[in-house]
Specification:
This protein has 236 residues and is an all-alpha fold. Helices cover 67% and strands 0% of the residues.
């Protein structure tokens, strides 16, 4: 009996202390490995080697865990931009968000589906808005572009995850067969051709960069047309 107590005490001492941060990090790791639908309080507790009821000291339930997972994901995004140029700042943020979803493909959808405003996300946005304002972008334009860049970075990555995978030896015939399998049997020829154009082999990195360029260059051009008006002398 004494030996049993010693063994139990040793196990408790060697187990890392449970914290909210550790619970949420374990939830991210579990989702990465098993998928979002597999997550439950029971299975999360098992991953941490505790009973599910022990988790409620740190989280209110599964919804709180999912909201916390969003916090953890956003905390992987650097708060302070690496540059003071607003164009490169916006580009880097969109690229970071795209990479985040690709690192966590099973959890990435939570970034758009959870009704929460995570503090890490607000800190990131605040820092990036500050750089844009300091670099001469009007706040209203800065907010609009930041919203677009965040949505684009996350959304593009989620869309990529839904695309049919192509193999290294893919050719026109195999791509046609893969695309045709997704179409209605009676699809007209013009829509089949459109589907082939949209589903043809493409460089997703290059397409992502083109979309970002269009957003950034669009705001750049808009600001150039406005600045002369702002600095023009008033009519006497």
């Amino acid at each position: 009996m004494y030996a049993d107590r010693m063994t139990t005490g040793s196990t408790q001492r060697s187990r890392p202390r449970l914290t909210r941060e550790r619970v949420l990090r374990a939830a991210v790791d579990f989702i990465d490995l098993h998928g979002l639908d597999a997550l439950s309080m029971h299975r999360l507790g098992a991953e941490l080697d505790v009973r599910a009821m022990s988790l409620y000291k740190y989280v209110c339930g599964k919804d709180d865990v999912l909201d916390g997972v969003v916090d953890v994901l956003w905390s992987e995004i650097p708060v302070e931009p690496r540059t003071r140029d607003w164009r490169e700042t916006v580009r880097a943020l969109a690229e970071e968000l795209r990479a985040l979803v690709r690192r966590h493909p099973h959890a990435g959808s939570l970034l758009t589906s959870r009704k929460t405003l995570p503090e890490p996300a607000l800190r990131v946005c605040d820092a990036h808005l500050r750089v844009m304002r300091d670099d001469g972008v009007p706040e209203q334009c800065a907010v609009a572009l930041l919203r677009s860049a965040v949505t684009y970075g996350i959304g593009h990555a989620l869309a990529e995850l839904s695309f049919p995978e192509s193999g290294a030896a893919d050719d026109d015939v195999s791509r046609f067969r893969r695309t045709a399998a997704l179409l209605p049997r009676d699809a007209p020829d013009n829509l089949v051709r459109t589907a082939m154009l949209l589903c043809s082999d493409c460089d997703m990195d290059a397409e992502f960069a083109i979309g970002l360029d269009l957003m950034i260059q669009g705001l750049d051009a808009y600001l150039r047309t406005r600045r002369p008006e702002a600095t023009a002398p008033a009519d006497s």
